[in-house]
Amino acid sequence: MTDHHGRRFRCGPILIITSLLAAVASLAAQPASVPDTKPAPQPAAAPAAVDHGPVIKDVYQKHFLIGTAGDFPGNYSDAERALAKTHFNVLTPENCMKPALVHPQEDTWRFERTDALVKFCEDSGLAIHGHTLVWHAQTNDWFFRGGDKAQVTERLRSHIHTLVGRYKGKVQGWDVVNEAISDRPGPDPTGENLRNSQWLQTLGPEFLTLAFKFAHEADPQAKLYYNDYNIEAGAKHESSMILLRRLIKEGAPIHGVGIQGHWSTHNVPYDAIDRAIADYASLGLKVSITELDVTIRGTSGGQRGGGGFGRRRGQPVTPASPEDLKAQADAYARLFAIFLKHDDAIERVTFWGLSDRRTWRFGQHPLIFDANNERKPCYTSITNVLLSPAPDRNVP
After folding, report:
1. 179 counts as catalytic
2. What pTM does this model have?
3. Contacts of 196 (CB under 8 A, 6+ apart)
């Protein structure tokens, strides 16, 4: 043994026993401690997910459509197809109607997947919202080959007439132009700040008006939308208002604007969303939330703009904690309270994907079904906005 100076010394058995008896006597002389009966604070729980509770599309049927996105029926399981049929009443094809996939070459069309999707929706009682006719991405270069304006205009007209015409009366609406506004602030704060795409370079700003007119010619009954991300706030919102006013002035048959809604629990711009919906409605346009997902970790944003692609399948996924699920449930509830406030303007709220396994933000748990197709707490919080309204819910 050592003393407190580190010096070693020897001790016999009698000394050890004596020391132990003294220690026991000292403890016995002390008053017994009273245990702390106050429970430790517990985090507020997310609403319990009820597997057989009210169905979201039925709860909101008098207010707006509830949608999902995916290239059904494709490689979806029977359980996943049943999930789509049961909980949603409108479907958006995630990829198969984009120009590069359905029309890879000027003389080549690939309708197998789009025909299968339309039949699946007809058999399942699902409406269809088409996505997308004109986009700077997933559009092959043959559209612009040669650079002749008249020829490119004819290719645009032919593409839209063929695709929209094939599904006339079967597709209720279309995202006619997708993501035409630049993410970067332009030199003119009062301008449209259009993305410098090949469409803009070849046809000029009128490519948007032309696209809407061609789509209306192909199906006069279809609802025609401009669709974009991050247009609910800041300079991009102002640019969208300028663009939409111009399209209306030029006689473009535009019926609505789609706010994509790729958000995160860390940065949902609630006040801006509330104002943006009112702004678009003031132009006489309907509004849809077209690609809704709320991630619980990571950043959010639009196409390749927010680092939100998540992990690749096969990589380890960090489970969602109770606090994560509570934050997500609260965020979705607050969003749907805003949507209900504007239900005279909102036509559709579509989740971008089916489940946390079927999402472009894989690993960030963004949707209302988990990877096992089970309802998450946010599913219940969304239905509770109508069924069990909270008087203290913070709605702008």
Report:
1. yes
2. 0.85
3. 182
**Which of these is catalytic: 94, 192, 232, 291?**
291
Q: Which of 80, 94, 179, 238 is catalytic?
A: 179
Residue 232 is among the residues annotated as catalytic for this protein? no
- The Cα-based distances of 113 to 38, 68, 172 in angstroms read 61, 17, 18
pLDDT in tens, the chain (396 residues): 333 333 333 334 333 333 333 333 343 334 333 333 344 434 455 666 556 799 999 999 999 999 999 999 999 999 999 999 999 999 999 999 999 999 999 999 999 999 999 999 999 999 999 999 999 999 999 999 998 999 999 999 999 999 999 999 999 999 999 999 999 888 887 899 999 999 999 999 999 999 999 999 999 999 999 999 999 999 999 999 999 999 999 999 999 999 999 999 999 999 999 999 999 999 999 999 999 999 997 655 544 433 334 445 556 789 999 999 999 999 999 999 999 999 999 999 999 999 999 999 999 999 999 999 999 999 999 999 999 877 655 554
Q: What letter would DSSP give residue 168?
A: T
Partners of 348 in beta bridges: 65, 288
